[in-house]
Specification:
63% helix; 326 residues; mainly alpha
């Protein structure tokens, strides 16, 4: 659930202690355990069994968690953060599975395209809202978390706020920079939601710079077991994005989904080293392709190429949308 030895050891120390004081943490830990077991099960029946156990355990802990979160204090903030992490992991895992099943259906007709796109939007936006929810705990409980056993999990001193783009990434940063043209050009009259898009675009570029800097700092002789950099940085954009931006996604705003397709590139940087996140990059690009329509696919050509998505295979399910600009 974390990158690096110190954060992983912090979880191993904190969780047993927290389960002695807060029963809902027990249910959160068992939910993640069941999910993990499901990924190594051979039969579909066993996978379903353990995923159902995970859902049951999470639901059993939710009532106490919801009661505690209404009165966050130094006594419960670490337990709340732990259970919230379990919720986020479970939500991401489920979104991955649901999107995979939805988009893998190659027997769809054009008449079903709108329903499929709407369902993909619902799945991804529900996951985003869940990830953002951890701020309800992080903001009021930050000082307590920083001073306790989970400080190695939450501290990110290496994530500078003013990271220059290395030469190796200049061309990629230029690709991101060009996305502003979608709403900032002489052919389009100003609309209120352009401000939301611009802030999300700024945040996305900053997230790319953070991830790039962490990847570039990894020694060339680093062992290649799993992601070699602090992959939790990939979620910086998802946790920090505004509710107004999530609302644009829910409204199927083309420009917002183009930004999400580019965000998928960061998920691709992780590779397939996390059992609960595999295929998330492909799902984001595929969902964006369905929503923005074939006439706007030029805007996501780079993410599709980076993640090896065959856009043509999605054509029967894609919506018919007008070009967002000439």
């Amino acid at each position: 659930m974390s990158f690096g030895m110190m954060p992983q050891q912090a979880w191993c120390i904190a969780i047993p202690d927290l389960t002695q004081k807060h029963e809902f943490v027990v249910h959160g830990a068992l939910a993640i355990t069941a999910l993990h077991i499901s990924t190594s099960s051979d039969s579909a029946a066993a996978k379903d069994k353990y995923q159902n156990i995970a859902a049951l355990e999470l639901n059993m802990g939710l009532a106490s968690y919801m009661a505690e979160i209404r009165r966050i204090s130094s006594d419960n903030v670490e337990a709340l953060f732990t259970f919230s992490t379990a919720i986020s992991l479970w939500s991401t895992f489920q979104a991955r599975n649901d999107c995979r099943s939805l988009i893998a259906d190659d027997s769809v007709t054009h008449t079903q395209a709108e329903k499929i796109a709407s369902e993909a939007v619902l799945i991804i936006c529900r996951c985003l809202r869940t990830l953002r929810g951890i701020q309800v705990i992080l903001v009021p409980g930050w000082s307590k978390l920083q001073g306790g056993p989970l400080r190695y999990v939450v501290e990110r001193e290496s994530w500078s706020t003013a990271i220059p783009v290395a030469d190796a990434h200049l061309a990629e940063d230029e690709q991101l920079k060009n996305l502003e043209v979608m709403w900032s050009n002489p052919h389009r009259a100003y609309e209120d939601h352009f401000d939301i898009l611009r802030q999300a675009w700024i945040d996305l570029r900053q997230s790319f710079r953070i991830v790039w800097s962490l990847i570039d700092s990894v020694p060339s002789n680093h062992p290649s077991l799993g992601p070699s950099f602090d992959w939790t940085s990939v979620f910086h954009f998802a946790v920090q994005c505004s509710l107004r931006f999530v609302s644009l996604l829910e409204q199927q705003c083309v420009e917002a989904w183009v930004l999400m397709a580019h965000y998928a590139i960061l998920h691709a940087e992780i590779g397939n080293g996390l059992w609960w996140l595999d295929d998330s990059a492909a799902n984001l690009v595929a969902a964006a392709a369905l929503v923005i329509g074939t006439s706007n696919w030029d805007w996501i050509a780079w993410p599709a190429a980076r993640i090896s998505i065959d856009l043509e295979s999605l054509r029967p399910s894609a919506l018919n949308r007008a070009k967002i600009c000439p």
